[in-house]
Amino acid sequence: MISMLSNDQIKAIKIIASAADRDCSIIWVLTGSTSFALQGMTLDAHDIDVQTDEESAYKLETQSEEYVVQPVCFCGTEKIRPHFGRLKICGVDVEIMGDIQKRLTDGLWEEKISLLPIIQYVYIEDIKIPAFSLAYEAEAYRKMGRTQRADEIERFLTIDKA
Fold it and tell me: What letters, b where the CB count within 10 A reaches 16 and e where it falls short, cover 128-160?
């Protein structure tokens, strides 16, 4: 179900997938509201969040160079520290976040995660798009203290199974 996404968002996701396919070593996964919408949740997605490992963040930037607004570099805030960059594709803001670490509610930083074991796939037409499961996303949001979003995801999962 992709009805909550605009045509430009769908085009942008396809362009990201195509860029990643040009270098088979790129590990990427769609996350956040765009991923939620692709998995059937009814919500507005305003940007596209792409999570990668550190090396893939820079490689994806290289494969998408005509769209780069902010080059990938290591940066962070009090709550999150990734290798971060921005793209603008079809008018849609795309955030690349490599080796993202989130500050846990106890103040410590979570360990960097290996993406490959937790990737699942959704489809836009015949294009395979890597995404985190909604259950994983709910857990991640809860760890960051974003309990309202975690609750929304879990409610959707409960309703979907009913």
Answer: ebbbbebebbbebbbebeeeebbebbbebbeee
Task: Map residue 44 onto helix, strand or coil.
Answer: coil
- How many C-beta atoms lie closer than 10 Å to residue 45's C-beta? 19
In this structure, are residues 137 and 35 in contact, taking their beta carbons and an 8 Å threshold? Answer: yes
In contact, 32 and 50? CB cutoff 8 Å: no
| C-alpha span between 31 and 134 (Å, rounded) | 9
Phi, psi dihedrals of residue 81, rounded to the nearest 5°: -145, 105
Is 86:46 a contact under the CB 8 Å cutoff? no
Q: Which two tokens stand for residue 154?
A: 């879990």
How do residues 75-122 score in pLDDT, each as one tens digit?
989 888 999 999 999 999 999 999 999 888 788 998 898 999 999 999
- Alpha helices in the chain, H assignment, sequence order: 7-21, 32-38, 54-63, 134-143, 147-161
pLDDT at 1 over 50: no
